[in-house]
Amino acid sequence: MSRFLTFPAGRRAKWVVLAIWLIAIFAASGLNLPAKFDKIQKNDSASFLPGKAESTKALAAQKKLENGKEQVTMVVVYRRDGGLTAADRAKIARDRTTLNGFDLPATHPFSPPQFSKDGTGALLLANIDTNGVGSTIKKPVDKVRAEVSDPGGGLQVKVTGSAGYSADAIKVFEGINGTLALAAFALVILLLIIIYRSPIFWLIPLTAVGFAEIFSRSLGYGIAKAGVTVNGQASAILSILVLGAGTDYALLLVARYREELRREPDRHVALATALRTAGPAILASGVTVMLALLCLSFADVNGTAGLGPIGAIGIAVAMISMLTLLPALLAVFGRWPFWPFIPHVGDTGNTAMHGPWRRVGERIARRPRPVWIGAICVLLVLALGLLKYNDGLTQGGSFRGSVESVQGQKLLSRSFPSGANAPTSVIVPDAAKVAAVSTALKGVDGVATVRTAQTGPSGTELSVILKPDPYSTAAFALVPKMRTAVKAAGGQDVLVGGPTAIETDVRHYSDRDTRLLIPIILLVVLLVLIVLLRAVVAPLLLIGTVILSFSAALGVGYVVSDWVFGFSGSDSSLPLFAFVFLVALGIDYNIFLMTRVREETQHYGTRPGMIRGLAMTGGVITAAGIVLAGTFAVLGVLPLVFLTELGFVIAFGVLLDTFLVRSILVPALVLDIGPRVWSPSRLAHEGEPGGVQPEEEHEEESYEPAQALT
Questions:
Q1: Distance between CA 266 and CA 334 in Å, rounded?
Q2: CA-closest candidate to residue 255, choices 275, 234, 235
Q3: What percent of the chain has pLDDT over 70?
Q4: Is 463 helix (H, G, I), strand (E, B) or coil?
Q5: Helices 302-323 and 267-294 meet at what angle, rounded to 10?
Q6: For the residues of 270-294, what is the DSSP string, one character each?
Q7: 3-state class of 129 per DSSP?
Q8: What does each C-alpha distance from 206 to 48, 91, 289 come to in angstroms?
Q9: Helix axis angle, 356-366 to 606-633, nearest 10°
Q10: Residue 325: enclosing H or E segment and its boundaries?
Q11: Among 76, 417, 422, 612, which is disulfide-ready with 448 (CB 3.0 to 4.6 Å)?
Q12: Contact 507, 572 (CB under 8 A)
């Protein structure tokens, strides 16, 4: 392991490592793999569905009726408050002729206009063929919008429908990577300049992170081609994971490297020592996060399952880059990039053992029990916000700001039943049962109209217009009722699908994924900690603190989402995503702390070991926590409610874990429990080792990279 980890620090090996990375990056860029990764993403709601969902089966049945083509509905809404004029009606007729003259991929082009009973509105509907790839939905919608939207003169025209909603989501995701990368990299550059107090050094870790970003997206393209569902949401999270985790690992390695430069004149030897001492902790941390993310592969919701391997690859590439490319760059450039604070042999530097984190540890050690009780009480109070849980966030409210599809839905609702924007599809295989199924649907309270959309050898499709907004919780509640009614009338092979049913099924399976995967992730992380710390009590203790931290962060997130941001609710997948990242990344910092505490305990005993471990890791972990929180907070710049909520919860949770859980709660618990925290290992039974007590030490310790921030 030592030879493997220290290889990039070799005098010749560093050039080999650089050459390998450059060849890999040039090959990926030459094949345009990162750009292909962006194009292969699927952002329509249907791509999220598990294969066993009824709406998935309904989609397959619809494709049979359409000769294997998948379709989304485009709706053009016309409205004049005082009633449509003769000129308006003539324009609508001209628009229909013009639009049907476009080369749109429409199996069913725009049908004759449907006029509202009050004469104020009209609808033009067409079914657009798609394969789930963004361009096949966005291009036709953009073309129609450019022709008909907002003509002026008092006539309001908007393009909406399931095609409109998908196009607006795709448009947001298309701009995500550039916006996100610019904001995140700018923030990290600023933080690294403050941390390292150098206008130059930040270029080295950011170069390694940038290479990791390019290569992880290239590998992501291969995964997507292999059949894994990847969407813009997963792509955005991948970028944040690579940047945040990569920068964290760089901070840990560079802190140890800078410490060794004050002891060793040869930079290659200093770097090898840093890799040998910090490398195992980085490796353990990366493996833990990867295993937690891979648990998402067991999810039923395809979008969630796809994030598992994509995120794990991002963490793996970031970890490998920080253990190979970063050391090679450090070995090539030597000491001068640290200018103006270049470390030299014999420099006193910053003495961590006599710094602020040492003083925090000593204060906690005086009365640890009241400290951990108080910390737990704070977390429990913050967790009361879980009572504000509201899953009312739907596709219609998923955008921050106004988009045309949502504007069109509101316009349509003023003249027609709201469900006309996205009709529900009911597939009846047996033609003899169509009348009975239609009658049963009309008997469901909340159904406005039922009509036959198309027929074919494989069955009949009924188009059902709902009274409520098709993307509202009221409409979602109608789906189970309709399914019960149609199956009673036509048999179990009658299927209810369409946009409302799709989102209903996604929410149902998302809730199921949360209940299933959280225990699995906890078990995986616990087993990793048991192996790493060679104990049972300490891992259980750490898992308990992370659960408390997660509950507090999610509770605060719900309150802020409601009272501060004023969002309509939270996405049903928010608890699972927040749990994965907060547990995996929160455990990271506990791994960095407790592996050092265990190492010190072997020489000095549990109590001095805890104080020493906190003192020697406090600065670098604090800096890493601030950087990681900042990178996730950048998700808030994107105009999507879910990513804003996720970014806030994770950023707040990381800061909570950094400043309260890892720095106060965990040390207080360890100091109160004593050697028993290492049970059943030998450290729990051998008593306190002898040797120099921390109070008597005057040795130079690790550089505090967070001093400028604290």
A1: 9
A2: 275
A3: 93
A4: strand
A5: 170
A6: HHHHHHHHHHHHHHHHHHHHHHHHH
A7: strand
A8: 33, 56, 21
A9: 120
A10: helix 325-333
A11: 417
A12: yes
- CB-based burial label for 434 (10 Å; 0-12, 13-18, 19+): buried
Considering only the C-alpha atoms of the chain, give the largest distance between any 2 of them, rounded to a whole number of Å: 97
pLDDT category at 710 given cuts 50, 70, 90 is very low
Compute the C-alpha angle 348/352/358, nearest 5°.
Answer: 145
Residue 160 pairs in a beta bridge with 75
Closest CA to 545 of 395, 660, 385: 660
Residue 236 in contact with residue 635, Cβ under 8 Å?
A: yes
Q: What is the DSSP letter of 113?
A: P
Backbone φ and ψ for 335, nearest 5 degrees, come out as: -90, -25
CA 667 from chain centre, in angstroms, equals 30
Q: How many Å apart are CA 355 and CA 338, to the nearest integer?
A: 22
Give CA–CA dist 272/700, Å, rounded: 19
Angle, CA of 110, 116 and 122, to the nearest 5°: 35
Task: Work out the mean pLDDT of the chain and round it to a whole number.
Answer: 86
pLDDT band at 45 (very low <50, low <70, confident <90, very high): low
The pLDDT tens digits of the residues spanning 465-489 come to: 999 989 888 999 999 999 999 999 9
Contacts of 381 (CB under 8 A, 6+ apart): none
Domains and CATH numbers, the chain: 1-31+175-348 (1.20.1640.10), 59-173 (3.30.70.1710), 350-384+547-580+599-683+703-710 (no CATH), 403-504 (3.30.70.60)
Q: Looking at this protein, which amino acid is placed at residue 351? A: T
pLDDT at 269: 93
Q: Is 428 left (phi over 0), alpha (psi -120 to 50) or beta?
A: beta
Nearest to 542 by CA among 525, 519, 556: 525
DSSP string, 389-408: ------GGG-BSS--HHHHH
Measured at the CA of 166, the angle between CA 162 and CA 167, to 5 degrees, comes to: 115
From the list 244, 246, 236, the residue with the least C-alpha distance to 306 is: 236
Interatomic CA distance for residues 652 and 637, integer angstroms: 16
CB 589 within 8 A of CB 624: yes
First to last CA, the chain: 35
**Burial of 35: CB neighbours in 10 Å, binned 0-12, 13-18, 19+:** middle
Q: How far is the C-alpha of 258 from the C-alpha of 350, rounded, in Å?
A: 11
Q: Which two tokens stand for residue 84?
A: 């449509």
User: How far is it, in rounded angstroms, from Cα 186 to Cα 599?
Assistant: 37
| Dihedral sign for Cα atoms in the order 337, 710, 625, 350 | positive
In this structure, what are the phi and psi dihedrals at residue 253, rounded to the nearest 5 degrees? -70, -45
Sequence-ordered list of residues with C-beta below 8 angstroms from that of 87, at least 6 positions apart, any chain: none
The pLDDT, as a whole number, for residue 707 is 43
Task: Extract the tokens encoding 451.
Answer: 């009509």
For 559, which DSSP code?
H
Between CA 521 and CA 19 the distance in angstroms is 37
What pLDDT score does 383 carry? 95
With a CB cutoff of 8 Å and minimum separation 6, the contacts of 108 are 71, 126, 127, 454
Of 251, 210, 245, 252, which is closest to residue 316 (Cα–Cα)? 245
**Cα 26 to Cα 33: distance, rounded to the nearest angstrom:** 11
What CA–CA distances, in Å, run from 350 to 67, 251, 354, 619, 704? Answer: 72, 16, 9, 11, 6
Cα(56)–Cα(449) distance, integer angstroms: 23
Q: Which of 473, 449, 404 is nearest to 157 (CA)?
A: 404
CA 77 to chain CA centroid, Å, is 34
Phi and psi (nearest 5°) for 231? Answer: -125, 175
- Asked whether the predicted pLDDT for residue 531 surpasses 90, the reply is no
